[in-house]
Specification:
By secondary structure, the protein is α+β, with helices and mostly antiparallel strands. Helices cover 50% and strands 18% of the residues. It has 12 helices and 6 strands. The strands form 2 sheets. A 3-stranded antiparallel sheet has the order 1-2-3. Helix 1 crosses helix 2 and helix 2 packs across helix 3. The longest helix has 19 residues. The radius of gyration is 25 Å and the shape is elongated.
């Protein structure tokens, strides 16, 4: 039986991030063979990761990586804000984003299969991180933005924006900041999805009919409500975050800037994630 020394335990701990007692136990079971101990821990780590997978990953961070005229936004979820701020978590998220951008891949299931520089797949690296950190971690979604010019803005860990534009660089950066703050749904009113407009019109009609006013007045009320909605969600109609006396359209025109498109990611922003948060007893996250 090989004697388990403190230096051996320390090396295993440094390489796995596990507690000293777990490392000593693993080394004892592997008769002092560090590489075998690591293999065994990875196997047990897969079991731990499977158990952790049942925990809802409601927190997380948005990571953005740019390469030339392409940039990718990736949402990686964890269970707590504490882990979202952890260096191991952020390094994993950045590595995954870089690999996905290089491969041109945005499907989460296919991203899991991508190989990283160290030979591991993204999924293997995820499982190892779950073992090390002790929380469920999931790569949830990704989106690639291409453009002649790209402006990137991150608001803390939770919101990330990439704007594809041409024109003034300072204005591009300002628009990215604006999108983060005001969350428009499209560049202009014409690009607002028809289903969103139809839903707003339906709501406005129901409210207007309750007023008991004549049909011609109801029609004007509905038209006014829809226009108000478009003013709120179309980027070019919004009041500019940096100068709220000007509309975004005026700023773009004055600076000769054109916005082609934008993508805004916010941790836990869709209905599915909201349902998960509600199940956990967390309020609406917006």
């Amino acid at each position: 039986m090989t004697a388990i020394t403190a230096s051996m335990v320390k090396e295993l701990r440094d390489r796995t991030g596990l507690a000293m007692m777990e490392c000593k136990k693993a080394l004892t079971e592997a008769n002092g063979d560090i590489e075998l101990a690591i293999d065994n821990l990875r196997k047990s780590g897969q079991a731990k990761a499977a158990k952790k997978a049942g925990n809802i990953a409601a927190d997380g961070a948005i990571t953005i990586v740019q390469d030339g005229n392409k940039a990718i936004l990736v949402e990686v979820n964890c269970q707590t804000d504490f882990v979202a701020k952890d260096e191991n978590f952020s390094n994993f998220a950045h590595t995954v984003a870089a690999a996905a951008l290089a491969a041109g891949e945005t499907d989460a299931a296919k991203i899991a299969e991508l190989k990283l520089a160290d030979g591991q797949s993204v999924e293997e690296a995820r499982i190892a991180l779950v073992q090390k950190i002790g929380e469920n971690i999931q790569v949830r979604r990704a989106k690639i933005v291409e453009g002649e010019q790209l402006a990137i803005y991150k608001h803390g860990l939770k919101i990330g924006v990439v704007v594809s534009y041409t024109g003034d660089a300072d204005t591009g950066k300002g628009i990215a900041m604006h999108v983060a703050a005001f969350n428009p749904v499209a560049v202009n009113a014409e690009a607002v999805p028809a289903d969103l407009i139809a839903k707003e019109k339906e709501i406005a009609e129901a409210k207007a009919l309750e007023s008991g006013k004549p049909a011609n007045i109801v029609e004007k009320m509905v038209t006014g409500s829809v226009e108000k909605y478009l003013n709120e969600v179309a980027l070019d109609r919004q009041m500019y975050v940096i100068d709220n006396e000007k509309k975004v359209a005026d700023v773009l025109k004055a600076t000769g800037t054109n916005v082609a498109n934008f993508v805004r990611f916010e941790v836990g922003e869709d209905k599915k994630k909201k349902a998960e948060l509600k199940e956990m007893g967390v309020g609406d996250t917006g």
